[in-house]
Amino acid sequence: MAELRELAVSAGGEVAGEIFQRRQRPEPATLIGSGKVAELKGAVAAVAPDLVIFDHELTPSQQRNLERELEVRIVDRTQLILDIFARHARTREGQLQVELAQLEYLLPRLTGRGVEMSQLGGGIGTRGPGETQLETDRRKIYRRIRHVKEQLENVRRIRGQQRQRRESVPVAVVALVGYTNAGKSTLFNALTQAGVLESPRMFATLDPTLRHLKLPSKREVLLSDTVGFIRNLPHTLVSAFRATLEEVQRATLLLHVADVTSPTAAEQQAQVDEVLRELEVRDKPRLYVMNKVDLLPELKRESLIDGSNIVHVSATKEIGMAKLLHRIDELIEQDPVRQVRLYVPQSEGKALATLDAKAVIMSREYCDGYVELEVQAPASVVRRLKSFLSK
Predict the structure, then answer these.
(1) In this model, does residue 126 exceed pLDDT 50?
(2) Fold type of domain 2-88
(3) Is the torsion defined by CA of 249, 251, 253, 258 positive or negative?
(4) Which residues pair with 365 in a beta bridge?
Protein backbone atom coordinates (compact mmCIF):
# COMPACT_ATOMS: atom_id res chain seq x y z
CA MET A 1 0.00 0.00 0.00
CA ALA A 2 2.96 2.31 0.66
CA GLU A 3 4.04 1.66 -2.93
CA LEU A 4 0.55 2.47 -4.24
CA ARG A 5 0.57 5.70 -2.18
CA GLU A 6 3.91 6.62 -3.77
CA LEU A 7 2.57 5.83 -7.25
CA ALA A 8 -0.48 8.05 -6.62
CA VAL A 9 1.73 10.94 -5.45
CA SER A 10 4.04 10.46 -8.49
CA ALA A 11 0.96 10.81 -10.69
CA GLY A 12 0.17 14.13 -9.00
CA GLY A 13 -2.55 12.80 -6.67
CA GLU A 14 -3.24 13.37 -3.00
CA VAL A 15 -4.32 10.37 -0.93
CA ALA A 16 -7.56 11.03 0.97
CA GLY A 17 -7.99 7.57 2.52
CA GLU A 18 -7.28 3.84 2.18
CA ILE A 19 -9.50 0.76 2.43
CA PHE A 20 -8.28 -2.88 2.52
CA GLN A 21 -10.01 -6.17 1.99
CA ARG A 22 -8.73 -9.74 2.38
CA ARG A 23 -10.67 -12.28 0.33
CA GLN A 24 -10.02 -15.88 -0.62
CA ARG A 25 -11.02 -15.14 -4.21
CA PRO A 26 -12.01 -11.95 -6.07
CA GLU A 27 -15.68 -11.17 -6.70
CA PRO A 28 -16.15 -11.59 -10.52
CA ALA A 29 -18.46 -8.57 -10.85
CA THR A 30 -16.70 -5.99 -8.65
CA LEU A 31 -13.39 -7.57 -7.46
CA ILE A 32 -14.33 -6.66 -3.83
CA GLY A 33 -17.35 -8.00 -1.89
CA SER A 34 -20.75 -6.27 -1.82
CA GLY A 35 -20.28 -5.20 1.82
CA LYS A 36 -16.94 -3.58 0.96
CA VAL A 37 -18.55 -1.85 -2.06
CA ALA A 38 -21.15 -0.36 0.33
CA GLU A 39 -18.38 0.75 2.74
CA LEU A 40 -16.44 2.30 -0.13
CA LYS A 41 -19.60 4.05 -1.36
CA GLY A 42 -20.01 5.67 2.07
CA ALA A 43 -16.34 6.77 2.09
CA VAL A 44 -16.72 8.26 -1.40
CA ALA A 45 -19.86 10.15 -0.31
CA ALA A 46 -18.04 11.53 2.76
CA VAL A 47 -14.75 12.55 1.10
CA ALA A 48 -15.93 13.26 -2.49
CA PRO A 49 -12.66 12.24 -4.20
CA ASP A 50 -11.96 12.78 -7.91
CA LEU A 51 -11.16 9.10 -8.40
CA VAL A 52 -10.67 5.76 -6.61
CA ILE A 53 -7.51 3.71 -7.31
CA PHE A 54 -7.44 -0.10 -7.01
CA ASP A 55 -4.09 -1.82 -6.37
CA HIS A 56 -5.12 -4.61 -8.72
CA GLU A 57 -5.87 -4.92 -12.41
CA LEU A 58 -9.61 -4.61 -13.03
CA THR A 59 -11.44 -6.28 -15.89
CA PRO A 60 -13.43 -3.89 -18.12
CA SER A 61 -16.74 -5.14 -16.62
CA GLN A 62 -15.47 -4.78 -13.02
CA GLN A 63 -14.41 -1.20 -13.77
CA ARG A 64 -17.81 -0.36 -15.29
CA ASN A 65 -19.75 -1.99 -12.43
CA LEU A 66 -17.71 -0.14 -9.79
CA GLU A 67 -18.11 3.21 -11.58
CA ARG A 68 -21.88 2.62 -11.76
CA GLU A 69 -22.06 1.73 -8.03
CA LEU A 70 -19.74 4.42 -6.69
CA GLU A 71 -20.52 7.19 -9.21
CA VAL A 72 -16.85 8.18 -9.36
CA ARG A 73 -14.03 7.50 -11.82
CA ILE A 74 -12.19 4.22 -11.13
CA VAL A 75 -8.52 3.69 -12.02
CA ASP A 76 -6.64 0.40 -11.61
CA ARG A 77 -2.93 -0.09 -10.95
CA THR A 78 -2.07 -0.55 -14.64
CA GLN A 79 -3.85 2.66 -15.65
CA LEU A 80 -2.08 4.56 -12.85
CA ILE A 81 1.36 3.34 -13.98
CA LEU A 82 0.53 4.20 -17.61
CA ASP A 83 -0.47 7.71 -16.49
CA ILE A 84 2.87 8.21 -14.68
CA PHE A 85 4.75 6.99 -17.75
CA ALA A 86 2.78 9.44 -19.93
CA ARG A 87 3.74 12.32 -17.58
CA HIS A 88 7.44 11.44 -17.55
CA ALA A 89 8.07 10.56 -21.22
CA ARG A 90 10.31 13.29 -22.63
CA THR A 91 11.61 11.98 -25.95
CA ARG A 92 9.49 11.22 -29.00
CA GLU A 93 10.37 7.53 -28.61
CA GLY A 94 9.26 7.45 -24.97
CA GLN A 95 5.98 9.18 -25.84
CA LEU A 96 5.30 6.67 -28.65
CA GLN A 97 6.02 3.72 -26.37
CA VAL A 98 3.63 5.02 -23.71
CA GLU A 99 0.93 5.81 -26.28
CA LEU A 100 1.15 2.26 -27.68
CA ALA A 101 0.76 0.76 -24.20
CA GLN A 102 -2.21 3.07 -23.45
CA LEU A 103 -3.98 2.20 -26.70
CA GLU A 104 -3.51 -1.55 -26.15
CA TYR A 105 -4.87 -1.13 -22.61
CA LEU A 106 -7.87 0.90 -23.84
CA LEU A 107 -8.93 -1.40 -26.68
CA PRO A 108 -10.62 -4.20 -24.67
CA ARG A 109 -12.21 -1.56 -22.42
CA LEU A 110 -14.26 -0.07 -25.27
CA THR A 111 -16.63 -3.05 -25.23
CA GLY A 112 -19.87 -2.25 -23.43
CA ARG A 113 -19.58 1.50 -23.84
CA GLY A 114 -22.25 1.21 -26.55
CA VAL A 115 -24.88 0.60 -23.83
CA GLU A 116 -24.19 4.03 -22.37
CA MET A 117 -24.30 5.47 -25.90
CA SER A 118 -27.98 4.59 -26.32
CA GLN A 119 -27.62 1.20 -28.03
CA LEU A 120 -31.14 -0.22 -28.39
CA GLY A 121 -32.40 -3.82 -28.54
CA GLY A 122 -31.80 -6.16 -31.48
CA GLY A 123 -33.78 -6.09 -34.72
CA ILE A 124 -34.01 -4.01 -37.90
CA GLY A 125 -34.21 -0.29 -37.32
CA THR A 126 -33.32 -0.57 -33.64
CA ARG A 127 -29.54 -0.20 -33.91
CA GLY A 128 -28.61 2.92 -31.95
CA PRO A 129 -25.68 5.21 -32.67
CA GLY A 130 -23.73 3.77 -29.70
CA GLU A 131 -22.50 0.59 -31.39
CA THR A 132 -21.62 2.51 -34.56
CA GLN A 133 -19.58 4.91 -32.45
CA LEU A 134 -17.91 1.96 -30.71
CA GLU A 135 -16.86 0.41 -34.02
CA THR A 136 -15.59 3.80 -35.23
CA ASP A 137 -13.55 4.20 -32.04
CA ARG A 138 -12.17 0.70 -32.41
CA ARG A 139 -11.12 1.29 -36.03
CA LYS A 140 -9.45 4.59 -35.09
CA ILE A 141 -7.51 2.89 -32.29
CA TYR A 142 -6.39 -0.01 -34.52
CA ARG A 143 -5.24 2.52 -37.14
CA ARG A 144 -3.36 4.55 -34.54
CA ILE A 145 -1.74 1.39 -33.05
CA ARG A 146 -0.47 0.42 -36.54
CA HIS A 147 0.91 3.93 -37.09
CA VAL A 148 2.66 4.03 -33.67
CA LYS A 149 4.13 0.54 -34.20
CA GLU A 150 5.54 1.62 -37.59
CA GLN A 151 7.15 4.69 -36.00
CA LEU A 152 8.58 2.59 -33.17
CA GLU A 153 9.96 0.11 -35.72
CA ASN A 154 11.79 3.04 -37.37
CA VAL A 155 13.19 4.05 -33.98
CA ARG A 156 14.26 0.46 -33.38
CA ARG A 157 15.95 0.29 -36.81
CA ILE A 158 17.88 3.54 -36.17
CA ARG A 159 18.86 2.31 -32.70
CA GLY A 160 20.03 -0.96 -34.26
CA GLN A 161 22.20 0.93 -36.78
CA GLN A 162 23.71 3.04 -33.97
CA ARG A 163 24.36 -0.15 -32.00
CA GLN A 164 26.06 -1.80 -35.00
CA ARG A 165 28.37 1.20 -35.33
CA ARG A 166 29.14 0.97 -31.59
CA GLU A 167 29.73 -2.77 -31.76
CA SER A 168 32.28 -2.34 -34.56
CA VAL A 169 34.50 -0.85 -31.83
CA PRO A 170 35.21 -3.18 -28.84
CA VAL A 171 33.24 -1.20 -26.23
CA ALA A 172 31.27 -3.18 -23.65
CA VAL A 173 27.82 -2.00 -22.53
CA VAL A 174 27.01 -2.03 -18.82
CA ALA A 175 23.28 -1.61 -18.07
CA LEU A 176 21.79 -0.37 -14.80
CA VAL A 177 18.68 -2.34 -13.87
CA GLY A 178 16.61 -2.39 -10.70
CA TYR A 179 13.38 -1.55 -8.98
CA THR A 180 11.95 1.91 -9.55
CA ASN A 181 13.38 4.52 -7.15
CA ALA A 182 16.39 2.34 -6.17
CA GLY A 183 18.73 5.22 -7.10
CA LYS A 184 19.85 4.13 -10.60
CA SER A 185 19.95 7.66 -12.06
CA THR A 186 21.80 9.02 -9.00
CA LEU A 187 24.38 6.23 -9.38
CA PHE A 188 24.57 6.91 -13.14
CA ASN A 189 25.35 10.58 -12.42
CA ALA A 190 27.88 9.70 -9.68
CA LEU A 191 29.79 7.47 -12.12
CA THR A 192 29.55 9.60 -15.29
CA GLN A 193 28.70 13.19 -14.14
CA ALA A 194 25.97 13.05 -16.80
CA GLY A 195 23.49 15.28 -14.98
CA VAL A 196 20.39 13.18 -15.84
CA LEU A 197 17.24 13.85 -13.82
CA GLU A 198 17.35 12.44 -10.29
CA SER A 199 14.02 12.29 -8.51
CA PRO A 200 12.50 10.52 -5.52
CA ARG A 201 9.37 10.09 -7.67
CA MET A 202 8.75 6.70 -9.24
CA PHE A 203 9.61 6.24 -12.93
CA ALA A 204 11.47 9.54 -13.23
CA THR A 205 13.67 7.86 -15.91
CA LEU A 206 11.89 6.49 -18.97
CA ASP A 207 14.23 7.42 -21.79
CA PRO A 208 17.48 5.43 -21.97
CA THR A 209 20.71 7.39 -21.56
CA LEU A 210 24.16 6.15 -22.65
CA ARG A 211 27.43 7.67 -21.45
CA HIS A 212 31.09 6.69 -21.70
CA LEU A 213 32.64 5.52 -18.43
CA LYS A 214 36.42 5.19 -17.95
CA LEU A 215 37.47 2.26 -15.76
CA PRO A 216 40.62 2.11 -13.58
CA SER A 217 42.37 0.07 -16.32
CA LYS A 218 41.73 3.07 -18.69
CA ARG A 219 39.32 0.89 -20.70
CA GLU A 220 36.09 2.62 -21.69
CA VAL A 221 32.62 1.10 -21.40
CA LEU A 222 29.18 2.47 -22.21
CA LEU A 223 26.92 2.83 -19.17
CA SER A 224 23.17 2.67 -19.86
CA ASP A 225 20.47 4.01 -17.50
CA THR A 226 17.12 2.25 -18.02
CA VAL A 227 13.50 2.43 -16.88
CA GLY A 228 12.86 1.08 -13.37
CA PHE A 229 10.90 -2.13 -12.82
CA ILE A 230 7.99 -2.65 -10.42
CA ARG A 231 5.88 -5.57 -9.26
CA ASN A 232 3.08 -6.43 -11.67
CA LEU A 233 4.64 -4.20 -14.34
CA PRO A 234 1.94 -4.14 -17.04
CA HIS A 235 2.85 -6.55 -19.83
CA THR A 236 1.82 -3.93 -22.41
CA LEU A 237 4.58 -1.70 -21.04
CA VAL A 238 7.26 -4.41 -21.20
CA SER A 239 6.39 -5.04 -24.86
CA ALA A 240 6.00 -1.31 -25.69
CA PHE A 241 9.40 -0.52 -24.14
CA ARG A 242 11.08 -3.34 -26.08
CA ALA A 243 13.26 -0.90 -28.07
CA THR A 244 14.46 0.74 -24.83
CA LEU A 245 15.02 -2.54 -23.01
CA GLU A 246 17.10 -3.88 -25.91
CA GLU A 247 20.03 -2.04 -24.26
CA VAL A 248 19.61 -4.48 -21.36
CA GLN A 249 19.49 -7.45 -23.75
CA ARG A 250 22.70 -6.32 -25.50
CA ALA A 251 24.60 -5.48 -22.30
CA THR A 252 27.74 -7.37 -21.32
CA LEU A 253 27.16 -6.79 -17.61
CA LEU A 254 24.07 -5.87 -15.59
CA LEU A 255 24.41 -3.67 -12.51
CA HIS A 256 21.40 -4.67 -10.40
CA VAL A 257 20.84 -1.61 -8.19
CA ALA A 258 18.84 -2.26 -4.99
CA ASP A 259 17.75 -0.01 -2.13
CA VAL A 260 19.43 -1.57 0.90
CA THR A 261 17.08 0.35 3.27
CA SER A 262 13.85 -1.00 1.74
CA PRO A 263 11.90 -3.35 4.05
CA THR A 264 10.77 -5.24 0.93
CA ALA A 265 14.23 -5.42 -0.73
CA ALA A 266 14.05 -9.23 -1.23
CA GLU A 267 10.62 -9.00 -2.88
CA GLN A 268 11.80 -6.14 -5.09
CA GLN A 269 14.83 -8.16 -6.22
CA ALA A 270 12.52 -11.08 -7.06
CA GLN A 271 10.37 -8.73 -9.20
CA VAL A 272 13.43 -7.46 -11.09
CA ASP A 273 14.45 -11.11 -11.65
CA GLU A 274 11.00 -11.80 -13.09
CA VAL A 275 11.25 -8.93 -15.63
CA LEU A 276 14.81 -9.99 -16.56
CA ARG A 277 13.50 -13.52 -17.12
CA GLU A 278 10.80 -12.11 -19.40
CA LEU A 279 13.54 -10.26 -21.33
CA GLU A 280 15.55 -13.53 -21.45
CA VAL A 281 18.62 -11.95 -19.81
CA ARG A 282 18.51 -13.50 -16.34
CA ASP A 283 21.67 -15.54 -17.03
CA LYS A 284 23.81 -12.52 -17.95
CA PRO A 285 26.73 -11.66 -15.62
CA ARG A 286 25.30 -9.49 -12.85
CA LEU A 287 26.82 -7.33 -10.13
CA TYR A 288 24.50 -6.46 -7.22
CA VAL A 289 24.93 -2.82 -6.17
CA MET A 290 23.35 -2.29 -2.74
CA ASN A 291 22.66 1.45 -2.73
CA LYS A 292 21.76 4.04 0.00
CA VAL A 293 24.09 2.62 2.71
CA ASP A 294 24.44 6.19 4.06
CA LEU A 295 20.85 5.90 5.36
CA LEU A 296 21.65 2.84 7.52
CA PRO A 297 22.62 3.10 11.23
CA GLU A 298 26.41 3.17 11.67
CA LEU A 299 26.61 -0.29 13.32
CA LYS A 300 24.59 -1.88 10.52
CA ARG A 301 26.74 -0.11 7.92
CA GLU A 302 29.96 -1.41 9.46
CA SER A 303 28.66 -5.00 9.44
CA LEU A 304 28.07 -5.02 5.65
CA ILE A 305 30.46 -7.27 3.71
CA ASP A 306 31.10 -6.99 -0.03
CA GLY A 307 31.26 -10.25 -2.00
CA SER A 308 32.49 -11.32 -5.42
CA ASN A 309 29.22 -10.14 -7.02
CA ILE A 310 27.95 -7.64 -4.43
CA VAL A 311 29.13 -4.10 -3.61
CA HIS A 312 27.65 -1.69 -1.04
CA VAL A 313 27.59 1.97 -2.08
CA SER A 314 25.93 5.32 -1.55
CA ALA A 315 25.40 7.11 -4.86
CA THR A 316 24.34 10.33 -3.10
CA LYS A 317 27.44 10.50 -0.85
CA GLU A 318 29.64 8.79 -3.50
CA ILE A 319 30.69 6.09 -1.00
CA GLY A 320 32.19 2.94 -2.56
CA MET A 321 32.46 4.33 -6.12
CA ALA A 322 36.15 3.36 -6.56
CA LYS A 323 35.41 -0.17 -5.31
CA LEU A 324 32.46 -0.47 -7.71
CA LEU A 325 34.57 0.66 -10.70
CA HIS A 326 37.26 -1.93 -9.84
CA ARG A 327 34.65 -4.71 -9.66
CA ILE A 328 33.17 -3.65 -13.04
CA ASP A 329 36.71 -3.65 -14.46
CA GLU A 330 37.29 -7.21 -13.20
CA LEU A 331 34.01 -8.49 -14.66
CA ILE A 332 34.35 -6.97 -18.16
CA GLU A 333 36.01 -9.41 -20.54
CA GLN A 334 35.90 -7.37 -23.76
CA ASP A 335 39.14 -5.77 -24.87
CA PRO A 336 41.17 -7.51 -22.12
CA VAL A 337 44.05 -5.68 -20.42
CA ARG A 338 47.58 -6.81 -21.35
CA GLN A 339 50.86 -5.95 -19.64
CA VAL A 340 53.57 -5.22 -22.25
CA ARG A 341 56.97 -3.51 -22.65
CA LEU A 342 57.24 -0.86 -25.37
CA TYR A 343 60.16 1.06 -26.94
CA VAL A 344 58.78 4.31 -28.36
CA PRO A 345 60.96 6.94 -30.09
CA GLN A 346 60.70 10.29 -28.28
CA SER A 347 59.72 11.83 -31.64
CA GLU A 348 56.49 9.71 -31.63
CA GLY A 349 54.51 12.24 -29.61
CA LYS A 350 51.12 10.87 -30.77
CA ALA A 351 51.92 7.32 -29.59
CA LEU A 352 53.18 8.59 -26.21
CA ALA A 353 50.05 10.74 -25.78
CA THR A 354 47.85 7.70 -26.58
CA LEU A 355 49.63 5.67 -23.89
CA ASP A 356 49.22 8.46 -21.33
CA ALA A 357 45.48 8.67 -22.09
CA LYS A 358 44.58 5.01 -22.57
CA ALA A 359 47.07 2.91 -20.56
CA VAL A 360 48.26 2.53 -16.99
CA ILE A 361 52.01 3.23 -17.06
CA MET A 362 53.92 1.03 -14.58
CA SER A 363 57.40 2.37 -15.38
CA ARG A 364 59.03 4.82 -17.80
CA GLU A 365 62.73 5.22 -18.66
CA TYR A 366 64.46 7.51 -21.20
CA CYS A 367 67.55 6.34 -23.12
CA ASP A 368 69.15 7.15 -26.53
CA GLY A 369 66.14 9.00 -27.94
CA TYR A 370 63.72 6.22 -26.91
CA VAL A 371 61.23 5.87 -24.06
CA GLU A 372 61.08 2.40 -22.52
CA LEU A 373 57.67 1.79 -20.95
CA GLU A 374 56.08 -1.02 -18.97
CA VAL A 375 52.31 -0.57 -19.41
CA GLN A 376 48.96 -2.21 -18.74
CA ALA A 377 46.77 -1.40 -21.73
CA PRO A 378 43.60 -2.70 -23.43
CA ALA A 379 44.34 -5.16 -26.25
CA SER A 380 42.93 -2.68 -28.83
CA VAL A 381 45.56 -0.08 -27.77
CA VAL A 382 48.37 -2.68 -27.82
CA ARG A 383 47.36 -3.65 -31.38
CA ARG A 384 47.55 -0.02 -32.52
CA LEU A 385 51.08 0.30 -31.06
CA LYS A 386 52.37 -3.20 -31.90
CA SER A 387 55.27 -1.79 -33.96
CA PHE A 388 56.76 -0.49 -30.67
CA LEU A 389 56.53 -3.79 -28.79
CA SER A 390 59.71 -5.06 -27.18
CA LYS A 391 61.16 -7.91 -29.26
Answers:
(1) no
(2) Rossmann fold (3.40.50)
(3) negative
(4) 372
